[in-house]
Write a sequence for this structure.
């Protein structure tokens, strides 16, 4: 019983570790967001133009400080290739930092779309339980029973390899997640006392659903969105990797890994490994942020 | 404010007793935002041998924290910062872990809140009790089992050998609790700490449980520290009362002295209604001779059982009448259908049959749009004040919502009305800009009432509005409801299982059992001369906060035995027949009707109507 207490459960969790992870998540995510805005312009080379240096390895760790000094003092005629160049002569570093423009924008737009559609459908499915909404849930079961990657690949293959189609395919495969999450939350919120109170006050069902139930049912979907953005980036990259994604020479992590992969047996690891690290970090950042948000939500 | 001289119990065998537990200056702190909050701050008290000590306090007064700290425990990251807990001459706080573990459970038994969920669902009851015994005693499995059966017998379970083989879910609520007492007492602890062991239980089970605990302890010779928020529990079972307020004992007195002459302002506040009854509380008189404001006729509500064609009969032909400015109490145990009646009146649930006539209009027949208009006149306040306010809205938004729906007031008029409403329920205007989170149950329930009052309703359903409140907030809310009725002339339907509150607040009362009203009358009639056997059982099980008429000092007529019939397969005759001490063959054969027994009192029992059943003494004072 004794619900109002001077103590909060949030205060009972180890605070320092939680905040440290949260800070890390925020740092990674904000870096990716900044790069999505300015990335294509701040790199030392144009990310879509080849250079005469083909398959040039990155400088070794010991060379970096000297090279950096020389670059800053302006004594080099061309900026160094920090991450080397690939088999076509593209500067890997410039492309790695330009790629969020493609990856993040696709992931964000796709997620925004699926969040919007998913929350709307979830609200309807959770608030009005009838044959139509049950059918909708079964359809989304079927959609979810296919692996996300396969569904997305097939959709892009059928509709054609354009950015718009990739966005739509991603939105399509992620929508059922939001439908399900929102529906579950709506179902638990709609039986709460304040909903019954709203009905007793004379609200219409529609206004109860939109004004009372919806705002209180958004949190799980919003937390999920943070994690899903990370995975959507991974999926975008994956599609490009198998050739169902954006077209070259668009700077995109999956595409870079894919084109670099042919050279790996020759010992040229850098065109693939650097974008690989970038993807891992990004997905990790979004996941950590999502977890931190979730824990905060649970604690409240 | 301590009254150490008076601290010894009134019971003769305890008078010369020595202290089993002696707590001195106990402090427990939690770091919150860089500083220490101390829910227990300088706690000192004693519990003597064979003594039942009640510890009462508001939510957040540190009761449960204190109970844990007595065992040397604190919820992380809390810490016991100082003090002594002397048990049998040893300071528990200084003992090594292994020794204090041996004491917990063996010498100090514990019963926590919600006994039902404290049993492991995967273990047979006998096994569990046996394990508890083996944890502290050298015993092989056979001895432990024998011991378990013996304990089950001692707590009054019939056929303990076969019950020991049962799993928790196979026991009824009352039996599960007895099993828990058996477990806590299996190694005959010197002290039993019971932390609100009956919160959320029905009155009859609550009384059974406490009776059982009290009786068992009389046999084992343990002392009890009984933590509670109920004055009734204190009055009926405790020898001495400790009042915990802001982490300290502010009053320590024998129970009779506590009720007769409380010293601390907090104690005086929670006992206010007991002390002033009949003087200042005075309900407004009822307007007589007018047509009732609201009347139901043969109201029925059935629920379909999933995947079958069977129906649950939740409300069965209920006819109620509530006059203007009148309060009707609707009492009964959980499952009696009283809450469903409240919901049906406002069509929050659609009645299956019958009518609800309000001010001349049958609400059941109204189309939804018209019904919505009526909602400004009929309101409801729910049991859980936390749950019934939208957590994302400010109090101001919450209070203006009904105005948006039902009035054409301008924004500034709505602002003024919200302020009026918050004044009306005695809250501070600064609360208007806050959200419900972080406010206490008492304040939130006042906001719920203010919202219900926004459009000047004529009728409010109060669905157990005081049941989750702490003692002080409860007193305040009852006073508020009476004052509002006096000032605004509202009618209430007060749904509650708490007969003490019903007696303060209601003019008339209806008793429900299995969806039917079994007795209706004025509060005076039903409380002092209950006719129906069920009303009699309900009243005799209720713990009235009156230490001069303690339950443990008298032989109480046996509580109703037997199983409650399932609301899916109700018997043809009287619904109480399977449990009634006055049952004869004819009761099982004939469906019972409400029969007038004079002066407006009605009773659904042909034997009572005929005068065959002795009206038991009832409740005085």
């Amino acid at each position: 019983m004794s619900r109002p207490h001077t103590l909060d459960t949030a205060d009972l969790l180890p605070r320092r570790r939680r905040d440290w992870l949260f800070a890390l998540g925020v740092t990674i995510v904000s870096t990716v967001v900044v790069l999505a805005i300015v990335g294509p312009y701040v790199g030392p080379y144009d990310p879509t133009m080849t250079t005469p240096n083909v398959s040039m390895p990155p400088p070794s760790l010991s060379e970096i400080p000297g090279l950096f000094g020389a670059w800053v003092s302006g004594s080099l005629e061309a900026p160094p290739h920090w991450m080397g160049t690939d088999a076509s002569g593209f500067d890997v570093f410039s492309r790695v930092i330009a790629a969020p423009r493609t990856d993040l924008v696709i992931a964000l737009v796709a997620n925004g779309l699926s969040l919007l559609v998913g929350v709307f459908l979830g609200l309807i499915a959770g608030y009005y339980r009838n044959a139509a909404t049950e059918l909708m849930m079964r359809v989304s079961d079927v959609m979810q029973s296919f692996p996300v990657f396969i569904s997305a690949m097939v959709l892009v293959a059928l509709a054609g390899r354009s950015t718009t189609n990739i966005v739509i395919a991603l939105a399509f495969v992620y929508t059922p997640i939001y439908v399900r999450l929102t529906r579950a939350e709506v179902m638990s919120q709609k039986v709460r006392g304040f909903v019954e109170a709203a009905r007793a006050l004379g609200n219409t069902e529609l206004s109860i659903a939109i004004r009372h139930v919806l705002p209180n049912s958004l949190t799980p979907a919003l937390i999920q969105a943070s994690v899903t953005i990370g995975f959507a980036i991974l999926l975008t990259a994956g599609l490009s990797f198998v050739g169902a994604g954006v077209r070259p020479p668009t700077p995109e992590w999956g595409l870079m890994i894919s084109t670099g992969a042919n050279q790996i047996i020759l010992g040229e690891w850098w065109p693939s490994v650097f974008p690989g690290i970038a993807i891992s970090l990004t997905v990790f950042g979004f996941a950590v942020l999502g977890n931190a948000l979730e824990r905060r939500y649970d604690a409240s | 404010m301590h009254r150490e001289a008076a601290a010894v119990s009134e019971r003769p065998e305890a008078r010369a007793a020595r202290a089993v537990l002696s707590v001195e200056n106990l402090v427990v702190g939690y770091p919150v935002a860089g500083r220490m909050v101390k829910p227990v701050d300088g706690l000192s008290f004693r519990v003597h041998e064979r003594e039942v000590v009640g510890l009462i306090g508001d939510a957040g007064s540190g009761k449960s924290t204190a109970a844990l700290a007595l065992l040397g425990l604190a919820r992380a990251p809390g810490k016991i910062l100082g003090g002594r807990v002397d048990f049998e001459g040893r300071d528990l706080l200084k003992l090594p872990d292994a020794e204090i573990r041996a004491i917990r459970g063996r010498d100090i038994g514990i019963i926590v809140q919600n006994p039902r969920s404290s049993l492991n669902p995967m273990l047979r009851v006998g096994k569990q009790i046996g394990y508890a015994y083996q944890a502290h005693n050298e015993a092989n499995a056979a001895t432990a089992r024998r011991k378990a059966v013996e304990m089950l017998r001692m707590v009054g379970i019939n056929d303990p050998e076969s019950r020991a083989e049962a799993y928790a879910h196979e026991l009824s609520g009352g039996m599960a609790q007895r099993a828990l007492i058996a477990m806590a007492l299996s190694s005959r602890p010197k002290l039993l700490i019971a932390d609100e062991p009956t919160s959320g239980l029905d009155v009859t089970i609550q009384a059974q449980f406490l009776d059982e605990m009290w009786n068992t302890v009389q046999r084992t010779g343990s002392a009890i520290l009984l933590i509670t928020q109920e004055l009734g529990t204190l009055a009926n079972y405790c020898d001495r009362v400790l009042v915990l307020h802001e982490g300290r004992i502010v009053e320590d007195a024998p129970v009779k002295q506590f009720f007769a002459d409380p010293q601390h302002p907090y104690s005086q506040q929670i006992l206010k209604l007991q002390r002033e009854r009949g003087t200042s509380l005075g309900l407004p008189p009822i307007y007589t001779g007018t047509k009732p404001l609201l009347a139901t006729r043969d109201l029925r509500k059935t629920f379909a059982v999933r995947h079958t064609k069977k129906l649950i009969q939740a409300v069965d032909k209920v006819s109620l009448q509530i006059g203007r400015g009148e309060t009707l109490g609707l009492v009964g145990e959980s499952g009696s259908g009283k809450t469903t009646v409240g919901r049906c009146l406002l069509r929050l649930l659609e009645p299956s049959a019958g009518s609800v006539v309000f001010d001349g209009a049958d609400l059941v027949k109204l189309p939804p749009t018209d019904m919505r208009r009526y909602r400004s006149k009929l309101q409801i306040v729910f049991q859980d004040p936390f749950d019934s306010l939208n957590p994302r809205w400010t109090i101001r938004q919450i209070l203006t919502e009904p105005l948006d729906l039902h009035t054409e007031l301008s924004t500034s008029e709505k602002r003024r009305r919200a302020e009026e409403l918050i004044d009306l329920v005695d809250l501070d205007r600064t609360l208007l800009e806050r959200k419900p989170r972080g406010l206490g149950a008492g304040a939130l329930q006042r906001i719920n009432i203010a919202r219900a009052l926004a459009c000047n309703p004529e009728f409010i359903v109060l669905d157990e509005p005081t049941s989750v409140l702490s003692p002080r907030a409860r007193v305040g809310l009852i006073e508020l409801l009476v004052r509002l009725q006096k000032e605004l002339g509202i009618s209430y339907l007060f749904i509650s299982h708490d007969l003490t509150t019903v007696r303060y607040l209601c003019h008339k009362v209806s008793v429900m059992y299995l969806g039917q009203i079994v007795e209706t009358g004025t509060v005076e009639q039903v409380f002092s001369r209950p006719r129906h056997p069920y009303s009699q059982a309900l009243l005799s099980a209720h713990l009235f906060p009156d230490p001069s008429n303690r339950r443990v000092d008298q032989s109480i007529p046996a509580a109703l035995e037997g199983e409650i019939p399932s609301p899916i397969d109700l018997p043809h005759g009287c619904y109480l027949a399977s449990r009634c001490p006055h049952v004869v063959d004819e009761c099982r054969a004939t469906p019972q009707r409400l029969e007038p027994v004079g002066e407006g009192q009605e009773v659904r029992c042909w034997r009572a109507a005929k005068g065959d059943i002795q009206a038991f003494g009832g409740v005085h004072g």
User: Anything to note?
Assistant: Residues 203 and 433 of chain B are 39 Å apart (CA to CA). DSSP finds 23 helices and 23 strands in chain B. The longest strand of chain B covers residues 19-32. Chain B has a mean pLDDT of 86.
